[in-house]
Amino acid sequence: MTLQVAATGRLTSEQVRSALRAATLAPSTHNTQPWLFASGPGGIEVRADPDRILPVADADRRELLLSCGAALFNLRAAIHACGVHPVVTLFPRRPEPDLLAVVRPVGGASVDDRLARLAREIPRRHTNRSPFSTEVVPPAVVGLLRHAAELEHAWLPRLDHGQVAGLKELVRTSHRIQMNDPAFVAEWQRWTARDRSSRDGVPMSAGGTPPAGDAWVLRDFGTRAAGSLRPGPAPEPLVVVIGSFGDDHLDRLRTGQAMQRVLLTATALRLDASFISQPVEVAHLRERLRVLLGGGVWPQIILRLGHGSPAAPVPRRDLEEVVVAPTLLTA
């Protein structure tokens, strides 16, 4: 059965469909894709999918909100690239926590070339879990990524050598804690090493075991023999933390949008990226990371940036699986 998507505001049905497809290309923990959408005459709803919460790794739904925020940014960028202005209302109905946002296309807009460029990067962006080369990321890149985060009301601090060393230790400690937790390992294994027919989770072909001696512990999602980098000294990637000044649901949803703007900016700069999630998934170590950063910013996600070997994107659910009937939208 073919999904029928109605025209929304000043968008045609085909433009709505294209924008929804762009939204589904956002990153998510273990590729759970924890989002649902609804399209009606008054706009597009963005919803959390409660059936895709990770109760062990993400008990407070923080990463779910980051993922849905990333999908929301993609939706905004794709609509803007059509020459239409998206007006976004976050948490429009407070008693309904799964209704995260409504996006209403309200009329023509002069196209922001920077945002339109990021919209073109959406199909290219994907997580690269392979080892990175020793090619150095220019220091000026950090300033560009920080500006991208600031545009979405988040913060990307510049880490000094002591903070990088402290973060490495937190990564090792949190990785060890999670790997010694049978409940975490069982949940992780349910979503990883999927076969090629699966439309979610992380397939074996997308994995990338790090080289021996890599100071940054990466989760082993499987191995990729074809196209992998030659053995050599462990690279030192650019590692950045994206944080928020508060830590409620609104802050997390906004930071998810910032995360995606940062990731698309990195993609436009021809950088690869992957996530270092362990220190922000273990609550007491996340608090230690906050102290390490100076205490003024709540760390929400850690990114590893560099130049990896070619990697295929992970699969996505069809629109038929993620588009549901609207509950709020009216003409």
UniProtKB/TrEMBL annotation:
Q: List, alphabetically, the SUPFAM superfamilies matched.
A: FMN-dependent nitroreductase-like
User: GO molecular function of the protein, one example?
Assistant: oxidoreductase activity
What name appears for this protein in its UniProt entry? Nitroreductase
Q: Which organism is it from?
A: Amycolatopsis carbonis
Q: What is the lineage of its organism?
A: Bacteria, Bacillati, Actinomycetota, Actinomycetes, Pseudonocardiales
